[in-house]
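Cross-check.
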Amino acid sequence: MTMTYAQPLTRRYTRARLAVPALWRQVIRTGDNAPDRAERTTAEPDRSAHTQLEIYDGVLAAFERRDEVAAVLRTSGDRATAVRRLREEFTLSHLQATALIDLPLTTECRDRIAHRAEELRTALAR
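Predicted model, tokenized:
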């Protein structure tokens, strides 16, 4: 007698399904040996959303002084010097300064960042 096994179904992932923002991921901690499991289960938002919002806020503040930022970037010899000078002159964190170096200083980029920051603020306020 020949046994045939069902072939596993392949899931077709779309681009939208794979691109789940870190904000929407939840970390669930469960106490398996706890007598009251419902009391022990808690959901916490992913902290990367707060970090993203902090970076966006720093970049948006620097966009208000984009001429000064461009001057700092032009006169800096290398990337490390540019990050250090941005942190000193604009009181940015290391993440904010490195993100600012990587972004183009255009109005379109600023609008996208402002829109994303507003989405994060709305989602975190819930």
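The two ends are 59 Å apart (CA to CA). Confidence is low (pLDDT under 50) at residues 13-45. Passed to J.P. for a second look.
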